[in-house]
Sequence to fold (250 residues):
Amino acid sequence: MRKKIVAGNWKMNTNVKEGVELAKALAGRMSEVPSDVKLIIAPPFTHLTSVADIIKGSGIALSAQNCADQSKGAYTGEVSAAMLASVPVEFCILGHSERRQYYEETNEKLVKKIALALSENINPILCVGENLEERESGKLFDVIGAEIRDVLFTLSPEQMAKVIVAYEPIWAIGTGKTATSDQAEEIHAFIRKTLSEKFGALADEISILYGGSCKPANAKELFAMKDIDGGLIGGAALKADDFIAISQSY
Ligand code: 13P
Fold:
């Protein structure tokens, strides 16, 4: 049985006080979250230690949104996987399309980041997805296939077992346009098939999340699909009511 996961990517939103309040609101409502659903929140770096204190013992897991591609040293402004592990942080989003688009995050860098995260016992959440032009020109399978192969095929099966994949079509992020459940399922199944080329039956154990304008109104239909194991939520993760409602959408 694959894990059902609802993860909230807060992106660059909320100040520390607001973030702590949101985490408190979620921690206080965990009895409303189905027991077989894992809730993960990914606040900004500045919030991590305060939020870690708030959610301790609540069942909510903590994630970072990125980590450095170097282990330590003279890299001003960077945050290492070891620093995150010391918070402690259990998960780290890597390769989000906003990082690929604005911060030159390449598959090459992601190979380093994923290895560093895993070496600190942090579970990576690797994001993949196509932009509108790539979808319309039919290049989406090549793009997503390369994002999977170039990064995840460098891992051992033991390492791969710790990874979560998130399919986030770039054209659906923050736009209000959601992939239809059939469009999303087609890519989730493709990702699983691609993973099986290298990892065989282990591919069936890997959780693959959908992200891109996922909200209470469409989560149920998406999560009902065979290869969709939950969601990576942006905007709707900033409202406790919506985030909890999405967790109840299985
Ligand atoms: P939205 O849910 O705001 O579209 O963002 C999705 C996302 O990028 C999550 O990582």
Residues 181-199 form the longest helix (19 residues). The chain has one domain: 4-247.
